[in-house]
Amino acid sequence: MSKCLVYYDEKRATSWIGNAAGEVLANELKKNKGFNIVNASELRQKLEDAVRRNEAEKYVVVFTRDVVPHDVFDVIDENNPLTEVKTDNMRFRVPNIVKSPDSSLLMKFIYNGGVVVWLGDIPFWYVTNPKDGMDKLELWPHNSPFTILGTVQIFPNSTQPAISMHKDFYEVCAYPSQRPVLYPQNYVQNIKRSIIFRKLKINKCDDKLIPLAKTIAVIGIPNPWYLSFPIILPNGQVNGFQLINILDIINTITKVTIVESKVIGGEAKIEIPLSVSGSMAGVSISGGKETQVIKETAPNKLPIYLEAYSSWIKCIGRGLFIRLWDYEIRLDKDGNATVTEEEVRGMARSIKSLLKKLGIKCSKSLLHQALFKFK
Predict the structure, then answer these.
(1) Which of 1, 21, 93, 205 has the fewest CB atoms inside 10 Å of its own CB, making it the most exposed?
(2) Do residues 164 and 282 share a domain?
């Protein structure tokens, strides 16, 4: 049995998950699904204990507020959380990062076997301000064009509704995916093999990504998405701006390598398109001296239709990061409702069902234990 926690803290910021929606989800997980609600301070204590006792694999944490709390993602300078950078036309708030994400308490927890369930906005895009927990600082854009989890985040002009890739394992109703990701195909793994890994308690699954739901994303022109962020020098100084064209990143990932083989003195000519991984298929031809010319081509910057992943599981060390429902989750009370209360309760059921199919069962909450003992 796992110790299942649900993070909900009204004193910490949230992004796409509304206050009312997060509260309903947290209470539903507590009431009927065997979870215990913890605030940011309590979560930090639980994770510290789990890592210190080498018991992280016994814990699951569902985040019902989608700004990671600095209490567990402790990478920001607590005394001087940010630097303001001004240009002629723009102003940036740049987090003062004092250590790598890998060294944070939350990532240590995952590396050592912990399971995290995340929904709503992009994981780790925001971190709460140590000086004001209701303030959120943009973390990820100021560090890398890739996410902390190693995925390529895309911001499509439009997408098809997300659909389940494994209807017998994780069936989802179609929903409007807004922040799907790309991942190298040679590191994408089938869910069935992953279940075997989990049940046999194999320590790791080699940094694989396990798709649960996919969408078709459209990157449009003539205005591709640009990521602009200050470059932070080792001495803490800010030095100008760097533009990253997301299409350049995608083109690099989808670049095709061609091996052109020619037999001198003969008539044979073979062209073999290879996968992104760069693996090569050899062909033996007799009758002359063979030469090979390697060519690389990249798609031109026309609209690109990409299979992207909306819900997925990432194997990290001995743990799992489960990403679900990449869109705004708001009730009427939150304003601009995107879901109903019944849909939120259904999310709680789906989370527990998914965990169960991964071989993860929640131990009864303290309340349930007390009621059972009383009976």
Answers:
(1) 1
(2) no
